Amino acid sequence: MYFQCWAVMSSNVPHERVFKASKSNNFYMGLLLLILFLSLLPVAYTIMSLPPSFDCGPFSGKKRMYEVIQETIELDFPLFIAKIFSYVANPGLIIPAILLMVLAIYYLNAVSEAYQRANAELKKKMQMVSTCPAKPCLKYRVLQV
């Protein structure tokens, strides 16, 4: 039992980077997000700009398709929820919110890169300290007269 414990403790050394596959996941998640965004563009363009046909079910008599959503919110929900949705759907709030999110992402990305550089520098310093020969401590050396 002691031999097995010693063998496991001496030969089973964990990898230096524990989550080395996590960097590749960010690439794939970014690629999936880009494809989702690109696939939503034609749908958003159709809903926002093209007028529906005059006999098209719930959209008949409307200038744009999204007017059905506004009408449903105004008629089916309580008045205060309709007011909240009308304030939230205001472009004066949506555009600054999107800009704020972009700036937050940029800031967090910059902080993350700075932390990565600091970690790399500390790692190099620790490796240099571990490879340097042991220097005698000058603080406790006794001077002889």
UniProtKB/TrEMBL annotation:
**Is Cytoplasm among this UniProt entry's keywords?**
no
Membrane-spanning ranges: 27-48, 84-108
This entry's Gene Ontology molecular function terms read: mechanosensitive monoatomic ion channel activity; voltage-gated calcium channel activity
Has the keyword Membrane been applied to this entry? yes
Q: Coiled coil: which residue ranges?
A: none
Q: What is the superkingdom listed in this entry's lineage?
A: Eukaryota
Matches recorded under InterPro entries:
TMC
- List the keywords (alphabetical): Membrane, Transmembrane, Transmembrane helix
Report the record's Gene Ontology biological process terms: detection of mechanical stimulus involved in sensory perception of sound; vestibular reflex
User: Which is one Gene Ontology cellular component term of this protein?
Assistant: plasma membrane
The name under which this protein is listed is Transmembrane channel-like protein
> What is the species listed in this Swiss-Prot or TrEMBL entry?
Anas platyrhynchos platyrhynchos (Northern mallard)
- Cite the source lineage: Eukaryota, Metazoa, Chordata, Craniata, Vertebrata
